[in-house]
Amino acid sequence: QVKASNNDGVWNEQGTTLALTVEAFFWQTLWFRAGLGLAVVLGVGGGAWWLTQARLQQRITRLEQERVLEEERSRLATVLEATPDLVAFADAETNLLFVNAAGRRLLGLGAAEDIRRLHLADLHPSAVVDQTLRPGLAVAQSTGTWEGETVVLQRDGRTVPVSQVIVAHTDAAGEIKFLSTIARDISGS
User: Fold this and answer.
1) Running DSSP on this structure, what letter comes out for residue 155?
2) Which of 2, 29, 98, 157 has its CA 20 to 30 A from that of 17?
3) Each residue of 133-184: pLDDT tens digit?
4) 86-91 and 159-170: which strand pairing?
């Protein structure tokens, strides 16, 4: 109940009823706070879901690339072992890292014999090392490849004439990472 007077100061004795409604600001309402909370949850949750999906897709892509590379390595390993030519790899200091089965047979090396203490020079007679191998390595290191005819030294001391290629494999800066060589027996026997 409200009692009031008019501008002349006359009071209304009866009174009147006045309905007042007090409303909160929109940011103070339950629906606003619920909507904001939902937006945050969806935004954070959606962002987390998207990030998880992106990482999962990256991992799947990387695993597929690794599988393709592994299949390629397997094919190359099969070819290396099946070829009748000597195929060998050495580090930049010419330490042997790998000699395929045909190369081991040609050189008279056992299948289980450790080759890590051998150098490319150990596969050739000393005269050939000075006359052919060292100059050939220098050419391969400066131009990328060298090819020529030379001889390899078998374990029993016999020599076998071969046609040989040496490849220097470099990184982006031009530093030699490793060497590879292929030698084919040209003795005709």
Assistant:
1) T
2) 29
3) 889 988 998 899 999 999 999 989 999 999 999 999 999 888 899 999 999 9
4) unpaired
